[in-house]
Design a protein that fits this description.
69% helix, 3 domains, Growth Hormone, Chain: A, mainly alpha, 20 helices, 494 residues
Length: 494
């Protein structure tokens, strides 16, 4: 039985959690077979006899198990991974690997595209005849486009399937990045950066959704950590290379070098990403319900609106979005002025800052990969509290340490580990609060992240201008990280 056929046979699903609860326990990821109501596959079929409409033949999941007995180690109940993965596949590391590899490559490209702008912004603006003081606009255009549009496309991915949204997202991302290459002025450049941000907002939630859905509960955190690490590796590898390329042959070629593999990624994406959405599953189940289970099907726009409504009324997700926003605001409020801080205290220029950035970026990659593995063993709320403590300690050491530069850089590395280590937790929680709204939740989480970074970076610049003191920025960063670690406890787990 094909992937699509098997998914369709998983029976009727609803987009909303049956109770509307905020629990994120793996048992809540599709309650069927986990102490609640039996799934559509199991209802009225305790002996594993043929399902209605299937000619009395057992599915591929039941083949060789005519008695319908439980899978090994599950006491007759499907695993949490299976509940959140209607395809019914045993998604071990073998099936997750293609998604992790492709997702990591795409994350690296998106990271390069978003991060390389800052160091080469002066050259870009000079070529357009614009003031260097407008460099923040290049970052803002990308971030705001991502934040404003990704929730819609995340919900659309839940409805139509991840494949069409991911493929379209890669095409838009590639086009926006390539057109930046040819932009003649600031207005066109901002439009191109917004287009690239739109594409990134389409593809990144589908990347994390595909990785999570193909992973087992034991490998989920580690796989998300790998993709997050690849996203961050752009700071360590991609950004320095892009900066060198810009200085050697011109900034335009940096974007072209990112756009080409972005277009090429479309071809493996067609094979890797799932093409089955809520619409297909509902039609095949013949339930006649909308994607949210709220009544008759009213088309894609109604389904998407219903999914967004369902997600935004989910108590646990609201706590998660608030925690995500506070976390990234805490990082951005201080980090956007880190160059000015090192220049003021140590007289560092661009050359010295490249080494500081390299050290912090490398530490962040370690935090993402190791943190993702620890997430499989630790309670998510406590895990985030530990990461928050590390972030608060690190930024405090950076801002308030009177010691030599080595101590300050070490503090920044600890800060980077703490900030980045929490990313797998945020992503995993967003993807598993309600697997039927996986793309929607991931997109909303990304939107909260980018919007918070935009607001906090602007606020940080204003605070520094008004006070002239980096201590205020460090204090705000530490406080926001601590509050975020407290708020995430509102995402109840069992």
């Amino acid at each position: 039985m094909s992937h699509t056929e098997n998914e369709a046979c998983s029976g009727k699903e609803t987009a909303e959690d049956p109770k509307g609860a905020a629990d994120v326990s793996e048992a809540e990821m599709g309650r069927a077979g986990h102490g609640g109501k039996p799934s559509a596959n199991e209802a009225g079929n305790p002996a594993g006899r043929g399902r209605a409409g299937h000619g009395g033949k057992p599915s591929a999941n039941e083949a060789g198990n005519p008695a319908g007995r439980g899978r090994a180690g599950h006491g007759g109940k499907p695993s949490a991974n299976e509940a959140g993965n209607p395809a019914g596949k045993r998604n071990g590391s073998g099936t997750a690997r293609p998604a992790v590899i492709l997702g990591g490559a795409v994350a690296f490209l998106v990271g390069c595209d978003s991060m390389v702008v800052a160091p080469i912004a002066p050259e870009i603006l000079e070529s357009w005849g614009a003031s260097a003081s407008l460099s923040a606009l290049l970052v803002a255009a990308y971030a705001l486009a991502y934040a404003a549009t990704s929730p819609f496309f995340g919900a659309l991915a839940d409805y139509r399937g991840r494949r069409p949204v991911a493929v379209a997202g890669l095409a838009v991302f590639g086009a926006g990045t390539a057109l930046t290459f040819a932009a003649p002025n600031l207005a066109m450049g901002l439009a191109c950066r917004a287009l690239a941000g739109l594409g990134a907002g389409m593809v990144m939630p589908t990347v994390f959704g595909e990785v999570v859905s193909r992973s087992t509960p034991q490998t989920r955190g580690a796989n998300v950590g790998v993709v997050t690490g690849m996203l961050l590796s752009a700071t360590v590898v991609g950004v320095p290379i892009g900066s060198l390329l810009a200085s050697a042959v011109g900034w335009q070629w940096t974007f072209l070098l990112i756009a080409i593999p972005g277009f090429l990624a479309i071809f493996p994406a067609v094979r890797v990403f799932s093409g089955v959405g809520r619409q297909t599953a509902d039609v095949r189940a013949g339930d006649g319900e909308s994607a949210t289970g709220d009544g008759p099907r009213g088309g894609a726009s109604a389904a998407v609106a219903g999914m967004l409504k369902a997600a935004l009324t989910h108590r646990g997700l609201l706590f998660l979005l608030l925690s995500t926003g506070l976390w990234h605001a805490g990082f951005a409020v201080a980090y956007t002025s880190i160059g000015a801080f090192y220049e003021d205290r140590y007289g560092f220029g661009a050359a010295e800052m490249s080494w500081v950035t390299l050290a912090a970026g490398a530490a962040g990659i370690v935090g993402a990969v190791v943190g993702g593995r620890l997430l499989a063993r630790w309670h998510a709320a406590y895990y985030t509290a530990v990461a928050g403590g590390a972030a608060a300690l690190g930024v405090t050491a950076v801002v308030f340490s009177p010691g030599p530069v080595a101590v300050t850089v070490l503090g920044q590395m600890v800060w980077s580990v703490g900030v980045v280590a929490a990313q797998p937790a945020f992503m995993t929680l967003a993807a598993t609060l309600n697997p039927r709204l996986q793309g929607t939740a991931l997109a909303l989480n990304g939107a909260a992240q980018y919007f918070a970074q935009f607001v906090a970076s602007s606020a940080g610049a204003a605070i520094l201008t008004a006070t002239g003191s980096f201590a205020w920025l460090g204090g705000a960063s530490a406080a926001l990280a601590a509050i975020s670690a407290i708020v995430i406890r509102g995402v109840r787990t069992r």
